[in-house]
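[Automated response] Your request has been received and processed.

Submitted sequence:
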Amino acid sequence: MGTVNLLEALRELKLRPRVLVATSAEAYGLVYSDELPVKETAVFRPLSPFGVSKAAQDLLGFQYFKCSMACRS
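Generated structure:
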């Protein structure tokens, strides 16, 4: 929820800083041998609650970024 709170506060205040969302390889979770080495474009298949939270954090950052780009005047 910390990421949501931060991104939402920045949006409400109409601030546009650069935000680095640092997640974890745990977001990728289940990776098959033919997918190695893991790339940032790999599909998220987390295997733990921590991995799910890191995948969600990454997706939230992307969603807020895309909205900020689409909502510019």
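Summary generated for your ticket: The mean pLDDT is 92. Residues 49-70 form the longest helix (22 residues).
If you did not submit this request, please reply to this message.
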